[in-house]
Amino acid sequence: MTRYNRILLKLSGEALAGPQGYGIDPSRAAQVAEIIKEVYDLGVQVAVVLGAGNLWRGTVGTSVGMERSTADHMGMIATVMNALALQDAVERSGVVTRVQTAIEMRQVAEPYIRLRAIRHLEKGRVVILAGGTSNPYFTTDTAGALRAMEIGADVLIKATKVDAIYDRDPVKFPDAQRFDRLSYDQALQMRLQVMDTTAFSLCMENNLPIVVLNLWQTDSVIRLLHGESVGTIVGQLPA
Known about the structure:
This protein is an alpha/beta fold.
């Protein structure tokens, strides 16, 4: 028995990048796929939302005058490239996978349909949800929160390269304070950079717990699912 039966795993695009920090590294994609397979083998239903920072950042375009909607749509399309790379890696690990995208491109992926995504999960398929929300001005964190609620996930796991939420960057500030647990209000008031305020607000309004952990820490997701205290949980604090 695991703590959660259905999870939404939110990954940054950098999770698929190699040592150079950009692009898609097939060996890194294979590592991510192995983590997903380990979770899948526990009988947990897995949906994934990917960012695209390894391929494109909208702020790069807007900083030189690109229209925000154009820059954001480019980022959404880049998430589809990441989704296809991860799908290939997960399929090669022996797990049946489906990519659904909020921006319709039927030759390469299914359109996102909530009930179909749920059906895939019930049939034991990993579902990779790409294309953000299909709307500009929304981050993939917000897309992750929205999709998690739509598919009825038990938790949103924000898997990063940092082991928890801190009050400031622990790399720059060795005395940064680490949090094991935060309320939604605390996370919003502190304006934490780990997720945007829209994503936090959506989760708060729907009482969806968020766990922030280090994807690359040995068995971090598995240990969380087995009930261990891993990373930082953001949610309704007990009275």
